[in-house]
Amino acid sequence: xxxxxxxxxxxxxxQLVMAILLLASLFSWYYxxxxxxxxxxxxKQTAEFERQFWSGADLTDLFQRAVNAxxxxxxxxxxxxxxxxxxxxHRREPGTDVGALMDSTRRAMRATYQREMDKLESSLSFLAxxxxxxxxxxxxxxxxxxxxxxxxxxxxxxATLSHVAPGIAEALIATAIGLFAAIPAVxxxxxxxxxxxxxxxxxxxxxxxxxxxxxxxxx
Amino acid sequence: xxxxAIHSRDEALAGGLALAMHVLFLVLLVFGVSxxxxxxxxAVIVDLWRDLxxxxxxxxxxxxxxxxxxxxxxxxxxxxxxxxxxxxxxxPVVKPDIALKEKQDxxxxxxxxxEAAEKKKLxxxxxxxxxxxxxxxxxxxxxxxxQAAEAEAKRVAAEQQKARDALAAQQAAAxxxxxxxxxRQISAKIRRFIVLPPNVSDAAQVEFEITVLxxxxxxxxxxxxxxxxxxxxxxxxxxxILRAQPLxxxxxxxxxxxxxxxxxxxxxxx
Lengths: 219, 270
Known about the structure:
The complex is a heterodimer.
Chain A: H1 3-9, H2 12-54, H3 59-68, H4 75-92, H5 98-121, H6 124-155, H7 161-218
Helix pairs in contact in A: 1-7, 2-6, 2-7, 3-4, 4-5, 4-7, 5-7, 6-7
Chain B: H1 3-32, H2 99-193, E1 205-212, E2 218-227, H3 231-243, E3 261-266
Antiparallel strand pairs in B: 1-2, 1-3
Helix pairs in contact in B: 2-3
């Protein structure tokens, strides 16, 4: 009795459940790999930009570079760019209050920050729902299969284990596939959520520190 | 490098890796998991009994059937065809000048012929009679042989029946022996668990009717008769019966019928 024969021998609803779960698993792995790449790159870019920023480079230089390489710029670079752009724009206007200037700068950075966070967090919710729902879907398939196998048992005069066992094995395959889809999704979700959180903290603290630097420039 | 290009490259890579992952898992599942394991040798606990009578009685070979006596079919007696008498020869054309001589001659010849025909006819009759006689005798012989064979067959059947009866009796005896042996073992096992209470007279005797399940479990023990017994001894025996589970039972399920309800008598002196 091989796994393939178990799958092909299952009833149609169970097979449907298996197909859904397989699709969910495929997509969740796709997103897992995609997220691994994007998060790793974001981390690298953030570290690179932090290194450049704190090495004492000229802010205008940094800004220029960020504008030029806008396509390949990291999230932190974009936050910096939007904040600096807002700051320089407001500063040129005569008679601006320092408080208002800093407020608008921070708002601009905040907006970019949120946009970037949204990009980083995208499809994490998919992983979360695969992780939480697919065990239930698999369980549904299993329950359905076991229901069927017991109903078939009612027609048999003498019930032996060999009458029930194949049906239950077929049904259990659905739960196995469900867990197979769910476990990596949950692990990946937790891992990615942690990574995104750490990046968010880095962005936040950078925003604050950068605001301080800008405020000092005004005086 | 443009962000869009990087992104699409990432997507393709991620899709390929996801597919590869699933193919790998499928291969592992199909070829790596053997679903039916061979039963590993596990330790078993056995009860050892020194003198267990064999359940199967010694085989008694039934006497081989005697070679069948086949009555030989009577040989066909060659038939002797009774030949019809030869036809008288056509009278030759006589010439008138030697008519007399010829006539006399002819008459003589005719007479001779007639005589010969008569003789032949007689012989044929005789042969026919003899043949009939022979046939009759052969039939009688066959009948006799047949009867003899039947009688022989009857005798053989009776002998076989006798042998079978003897075999059955032997088997029954062996079974009875097995049953007795196991009853003895059961009561010995129960007796081992009896904790004799003090102040029990040796004359005490108690009979229990025990209902036994096929696994050797005791379904119930009913006090049947307690002759000059003390309730303490009855209770001790009942406790012992319950503690002696599972009772030793013969492996042959056919004998289980005789162990369904057991009447066992216990005395403190046994």
